[in-house]
Amino acid sequence: MSVAPVALATVHWGPAVGPQVLLLHGITSSAGTWWQVASLLAERGVSVTAADLRGHGSSPRTTDYALESYAADVLAVPRPASGTWDLVVGHSLGGAVTALALATDANWTRAALLVDPPLVIAAADVDALVEGILADLEPPSAEELARQHPLWHADDAFQKVQAASVVSPFTVEATIRGNAARAGEWNLEALFGGGEVPVVILGADPGQGAMFSVEQGERIARLSDRVAYEIVPGAGHSIQRDAPGVVVEHALRLLPGGR
Description:
By secondary structure, the chain is of the alpha/beta class. The chain has a domain at 10-119 and 186-254: Alpha/Beta hydrolase fold, catalytic domain (Rossmann fold), CATH 3.40.50.1820. 39% of the residues lie in helices and 15% in strands. The chain has helices at residues 35-43, 67-76, 93-104, 126-136, 142-148, 154-164, 169-183, 214-223, 239-242, 244-254; strands at 10-13, 20-24, 47-51, 87-91, 112-115, 120-121, 186-187, 199-204, 227-232. α8 links the parallel β8 (199-204) and β9 (227-232). The chain is globular, with a radius of gyration of 17 Å. 45% of the residues are buried. The mean pLDDT is 94.
C-alpha cells in the first residue's frame, strides 16, 4: 500500500531548548487535550510538542486512515536538532501509532511511554468499540462529562468536547474497523519482539475500563526486557486526565539522566 503522509498541526509548550518530548493523543481527541501533562512538563524545563493526528484537530482530513499512514505522519513531524526525540508519549490510538512508528524507525525516539494503548483488538470486540467511540462524537455537556469523570480537571471535559466535535464518523470507522479488516485482526504485540529503545506501558485499572490488559502486559514483558508494564490504580482509560502526575512522573524518569 502506498503511504502519503500529511503535515500534522502541532502546538508547543515550554522552552525551545532542553529535553524534547512529542505527545500523541487518542482517537476523537486532539493535541490540546494534553494541556495538563504538557504544562507540568514545561514547568520542569521540558520542550513539549503535541500533534493533531490526521482527521483530528486542525490536521488534514484524508481518505486513508491506515495505521501505517498515521505512523508515517508522526515520523514526518519536524524533529529536534539532534534528529531524535528524547521521548514520545502516546495515549490510546496515539500509543498504537507510537509503537508502529518506533518499529519503523528505531532512531525516531530514545524512549517511549504508551498510555493504555489498544495493541490488540479482538474481531469480536470491533463493533462494540466502534459504537462506543461514535457515541463520543456526541458527548454530553462539559459539565456532565466532568461529573462522569470526577478525577478530571474541569478543562479536561471542555477540551474533550471540543476535540470530539471536529472528528467525523468516517474517521472513526476507517481507523478502527478499516484497520482491523485490512490486516485480518488488530494486533501489534509482535512489534515488541526486538529493539533497544526502552518502552514503558501504563495500563488503566482493570476495573475502570482498561484497553490494555494485564495478560497483554505479561505477554509483551516476556517478549522483551526493554518493556516495562505498570497498572495505574483507580485510573480509567484516559490516565493522562485521571492521573496526569503519574504520566509526568514516568515521562521525567525516561528523559536523559532522569529529572
